[in-house]
Amino acid sequence: MIEEVWQRIVENHGNIFKQIRGKQFSYTVVGTSIKLTTTNQLIAKTKFEKALAFLPLSNTVPIQHLRAPSYIYAILTDKRIIE
Hints:
The chain is α+β, with helices and mostly antiparallel strands. The protein has helices at residues 2-11, 45-52, 69-76; strands spanning 17-18, 24-25, 27-30, 33-36, 42-44. It contains 3 helices and 5 strands. Strands 3-4-5 form a 3-stranded antiparallel beta sheet. The protein has a two-stranded antiparallel sheet with strand order 1-2. The model has no long low-confidence stretch (mean pLDDT 97).
């Protein structure tokens, strides 16, 4: 499943996403990570893979142990990524 989800993440780089509280951001793909435009953080593909085990998500609580949970949540709950 991660390969399919990752492909959608790659295809949607540069698009606007919204965090749970409404803050907008976008990202670029750098190898097997994404680089957020609003911070200097990189989020590895492996973090998204780990987060998939917690879907469906209604908030960020189940993935708080992962780097940048609010960004992962925003991406993985977006209809463009998870259909």
